[in-house]
Amino acid sequence: MERRVKHQENTIRSYEKQIADLSAQVARQEQLKQTTREQEQCNTEMKQIRDLCQKDKDTLKNELNSIEMSYSDRYQESSLSSSEEEEVTFLLRLKPSPTPPTRRRKNIIQPQANVITTPKGWDVVIERRDPEISCANSSSSCSSPVKQQRFSFDKKNRRECAQQDEKNKEEIPPPIPPRFKPSAPPPEPIENNYGWPPINQSTACRVLKKIRETGSAEEAARSGRPKTVTGEDKALDMMLSIQETLTQSSRTLALAMDFNVSHQSVKNLFKKQKLHPYKMKLVHELNEDDLIEELNFVS
């Protein structure tokens, strides 16, 4: 008996679950139907609104076309001129605007009725032209002289003239820079034909003193300072170029004679050249007073 009761309870529970599932499905279907109805209503309302908008557009287009047709008819009627009507033309003439008074006054200069003020400092004057003058201009034989229109320079014309001047300046080739004459003619042609620039003797002596203190030309450069072009830097560059071009004996001799380089400075300069130690020993052992012989021996 207990088993039968339990079995019946289980079946009742299963039936209850099925009934709950079916009720949930029915509720979902009703919701879907309601949403579809709402969508159909929205679609119908949108169609009605579109139809109304299209009708309004059509009516507006018809009204605009009717207005244009009426205006075109009026313009054609007014443009049809008979032979008895006189031909009227207007001219625009530039006139300089009046300068403002220097002192403050109560009376203010007011422009005329037929004058249009412009911000450029010029006024546009509208003048009526007689038909007789226009006929005289059109015909080949004119008895009275025709007045020519005046031409004035405005900002646009000035800008064009300035641009033309700049183009003309660009076409002119730049002048050739002057070349420095070498202190002595080189024995062989070299790449640099400008020669050595003039350097002050005091700056050269200062650089040589630094080279003598440090022992090399590279360490003589100022450390911890920005690279500024000074007389000492130029002299240092010149000394380094002398070391690189020792084969040009005539130029090195001329420079040595110009700057009165001492024996010690020459020895310090030649230290960086990496000469043979035997040759350097001979240079140190030389005790001649003539610097030219020492330079010739080393080079």
TrEMBL record:
Residues 152-172 have a biased composition (Basic and acidic residues). Residues 134-196 are annotated as: Disordered. Keywords: Coiled coil. Residues 5-52 form a coiled coil. Residues 173-189 have a biased composition (Pro residues). Residues 134-144 have a biased composition (Low complexity). This is Uncharacterized protein.
